[in-house]
Design brief:
The protein has 101 residues and is mainly alpha-helical. Strands 1-2 form a two-stranded parallel ribbon. It is globular, with a radius of gyration of 14 Å. Helix 2 packs across helix 3. Helix 2 links the parallel strand 1 and strand 2. The protein contains four helices and two strands.
Length: 101
């Protein structure tokens, strides 16, 4: 899932955690992860996590995904993708889209 900013990525992760909290899945990282630019979480550490626990759902900002792709494209496992979802696409392509009536 590509989202315009890191706060939205972590909000989505929060909802995934809430929905899956009653399941037997103890390892959220193997189910869903966030990649976003963050000084306290460098790209190299995010790549390591992706390699150790490839998630079923990856939430990320465009720049963080590009950073990871530039550093180690295989960490994203693009060849195994079945769906790409872009949330708030109007923010990613240059501002709010006009309403269609």
């Amino acid at each position: 899932m590509i989202v315009p900013h890191r706060a939205l990525a972590f909000q989505m992760l929060h909802w995934i955690r809430s929905i899956t909290s009653s399941s037997d899945s103890a390892n959220l990282a193997s189910f869903a992860q966030v990649v976003a630019r963050d000084a306290s979480d460098p790209t190299s550490a995010q790549i390591t996590r992706l390699r150790q626990n490839p998630p079923h759902i990856l939430l990320g900002t465009p720049q963080a995904l590009l950073d990871i792709y530039a550093s180690d494209a295989s960490a994203l496992q693009v060849d195994t993708l079945s769906t790409i979802y872009v949330d708030e696409v109007d923010h990613l392509i240059g501002g709010p889209a006009p309403y269609i009536r």
